[in-house]
Each structure stands twice: as structure tokens, then as C-alpha cells.
Amino acid sequence: MLLIHGDETQEAKSTPAEDAALMAEYGAFHEGLATAGAFVDGARLQPTATATTVRVKNGDTVTTDGPFAETKEQLGGYYIIEVPNLDAALAWAAKVPSAKHGSVEVRPVWEMGAE
Length: 115
Prior knowledge:
InterPro entries: Dimeric_a/b-barrel (IPR011008), YCII (IPR005545). Belongs to the YciI family. The chain is of the alpha+beta class. The protein has one domain: Alpha-Beta Plaits. It contains three helices and six strands; from the N terminus they run βααββββαβ. The protein has helices at 8-11, 16-36, 86-95, and strands at residues 2-6, 39-44, 52-57, 60-65, 74-81, 103-106.
């Protein structure tokens, strides 16, 4: 899984032309994944202002507005890819357009039922 992190405050300052250019880069990236047969799933997430965090403490459910942790970079989207090894995943992560301004965490998805 490629977890895409970026600074929402900087993204909010971008111009419509900059937004369009970034979306064009993502279109090309997505097409490259699909052509290579590596694309499984992906989505852009709404801003953290729309998030609610749920915790259960002593049997009580507690909800708070916003993401779990305060950080300079927020999770903005993800891609689930299918590739033969970590090196291939890292190569795709380096091609994510937002990697130039934020970070992309590469993490294997836990296969349910796998020991």
C-alpha cells in the first residue's frame, strides 16, 4: 500500500492551475500503474477537517474531531498495488506526484488469515 502524506495547509494555497497540473500528473501515474498491471485500488481522501477519530476506553466509545495525531503532514490518499517485491513498490512510490512535496509510506497489507 502506498500511503500518500502531504501538508494540507500548503495544498490549500495552490492555484487552480497548480491543482490541474497535479491532477494531470496523477492521471499519468494512475495510467502507468494500470498499464503495468500493478493497480488494485486507490482513493483521494477528504481533508482532515472532515475526519473523526474513534477510541474505546474502559468500554466507552469516545469520538474526537480530526485525525489521530497532529503532524505537519496528513494522510491524503492511497494506492493499493500488486507488485513482486519491495523494490518494485519503492520504485512506484517514488513516482507518486506528491512524493516531491510530501512523503509516501510503503507498507504491506496484512493478508487476513495469514499467520
